[in-house]
Amino acid sequence: MIPAAFDYLAPATLEEAIRALGTHGEEVKLLAGGHSLLPLMKLRLASPTLLVDLGRIPSLGLISQEGDKILIGALSTHYQIESSKLLKEKCPLLPQTARVIGDVQVRNRGTIGGSLAHADPAADMPAPILALAGELRATGPQGERRLKAEDFFLGLMATALSPTEILTEIRVPLLSGRCGTAYLKAPQKASGFALVGVAVWLKLSASGICEDIGIGVAGLAAKPFRAKGVERRLRGKNLNPSLIEEAASHTAQGVDPMEDIHASGEFRADLARLYAARAIQEAAKRAGV
Amino acid sequence: MAARTKVSIRINGTAYSHEVEPRLLLVHYLRDVVGLTGTHIGCETSICGACTIMLNGAAVKSCTVLTVQADGGEVLTIEGLAQGEELHPIQEGFWECHGLQCGYCTPGMILSTYQLLLRDSKPSEDEIRHAIDGNLCRCTGYQHIVDAVQYAAKKLRQKAVGNRILDPI
């Protein structure tokens, strides 16, 4: 399995990479970790004539803190996220998710930005970014643009990025106070991709009331989404198993579930309800309910 | 045909330099250009892990890395582990514990073990199984491989100086 021939550029700066995108038209693709793009190219499902490798731009691979946000460079690998002390302490939902992506070798190469920009509906990373109401930053010829996670995913492998923009950074909040998080997925047995994956973060008040909650759902529909109906049913309430189960039963409401050889739509919707309930329960437990 | 690109890569401590097509996969470079055929090609779809090598201190599936991406990097393959006739402790573990039958997955299994023991000198059985999740073996049923990893971890800990039981490359 050999990709079709292409030209290759490995710019050392973001500016050069943006210029290359702008001057080579539609047939150019950005290469991050290459763990979505290279398999597609080997199967000849993608045949770009130019690859612009972002792997030589060191500033894109850093994880740092700025005020009440954690800044994650788009080229941070899943392993970097899984093992980041800062994230484990201040935003554990991301390491919890990164840990169950692919396998060790895939996590060593695959990047958060690559995963988000590829927007595979069965990818894990979109779920926690949606749950955390993350902010994505993209740079193009006109400068930097900020996108809410909710506005980023448009559909099956489609995002709000323009062809000349590069996703550079993902910002997520520092979690403080009585917070709990969980990512649970029903993996497709052979590939490990999510039939359904549910990411939850929640915050409890001192008296144990659910002050705020975010729920991101991957795998169920053509685009990952925030289960706002479920969140609404839990916000301001005292969490208990029957309330959680009732709220989670609305996870697939108004959603058109995907159907493929791995799972029917009905089964996916069932899994979504079940895994949402379990993930909320787990997050609540971790917050000390 | 696309313009060839010059790459310089250190493999098992030896410097190599070639002009390659950008589309040349690292596994093909290692096997067909450099002649190191110990790295196996299995599924070619980044699933089976037979082609696992270490690149800059991280285990990767070399069927899913372009040679040009490894330019300037350090590679460790199965050929780089033994010291002459003396097996590396991980190889010894696979030998002693019958961690292989047909041997096809073994180079990849050993390099994934290398990655694990680089990060964790005393992994539990669960951690070992999690760490070789990306390597398929159709012969052993995995139990002997887990035994082999435990053997190697123990042996390396006995030889270790300080906390580090393996050098990064």
Secondary structure layout:
The complex is a heterodimer of chains A (289) and B (169).
Chain A: E1 7-9, H1 14-23, E2 28-31, H2 37-42, E3 50-53, E4 63-66, E5 69-73, H3 78-83, H4 85-90, H5 93-98, H6 104-109, H7 112-118, H8 126-131, E6 135-140, E7 143-148, H9 149-152, E8 153-155, E9 158-159, E10 166-173, E11 178-187, E12 194-204, E13 210-218, E14 225-226, H10 228-234, H11 241-248, H12 265-287
Parallel strand pairs in A: 1-3, 2-3
Antiparallel strand pairs in A: 4-5, 5-10, 6-7, 6-10, 8-9, 11-12, 12-13, 13-14
Chain B: E1 5-11, E2 14-20, H1 26-33, E3 52-55, E4 58-61, E5 74-76, H2 89-96, H3 106-119, H4 125-131, H5 143-159
Parallel strand pairs in B: 1-5
Antiparallel strand pairs in B: 1-2, 3-4, 3-5
Helix pairs in contact in B: 2-5
Model description:
The complex is a heterodimer of chains A (289) and B (169). By secondary structure, chain A is α+β, with helices and mostly antiparallel strands. Helix content of chain A is 33%, strand content 27%. Chain A contains 12 helices and 14 strands. Chain A has helices at residues 14-23, 37-42, 78-83, 85-90, 93-98, 104-109, 112-118, 126-131, 149-152, 228-234, 241-248, 265-287; strands spanning 7-9, 28-31, 50-53, 63-66, 69-73, 135-140, 143-148, 153-155, 158-159, 166-173, 178-187, 194-204, 210-218, 225-226. In chain A, the strands form 4 sheets. A 5-stranded antiparallel β-sheet of chain A has the order 4-5-10-6-7. A 4-stranded antiparallel β-sheet of chain A has the order 11-12-13-14. Chain A has a 3-stranded parallel β-sheet with strand order 1-3-2, with helices on one face. In chain A, helix 11 (241-248) packs antiparallel against helix 12. Chain A is globular and about 60 Å long. Chain A starts with 6 loop residues before the first strand and ends with a helix. Chain B is α+β, with helices and mostly antiparallel strands. Chain B folds into 2 domains: 5-80, Ubiquitin-like (UB roll); 89-159, DNA polymerase, domain 1 (Orthogonal Bundle). Chain B contains 5 helices and 5 strands. Chain B has helices spanning 26-33, 89-96, 106-119, 125-131, 143-159; strands spanning 5-11, 14-20, 52-55, 58-61, 74-76. Chain B has a 5-stranded mixed β-sheet with strand order 2-1-5-3-4, with helices on one face. In chain B, strand 3 (52-55) and strand 4 form a beta hairpin. The A-B interface holds A 1-8, 10, 31, 34-35, 38-39, 41-42, 51, 53, 55, 79, 102-106, 108-109, 190-191 and B 1-3, 5, 21-23, 25, 28, 44-47, 49, 52, 58-61, 63-66, 68-69, 71, 112, 115-116, 131-135.
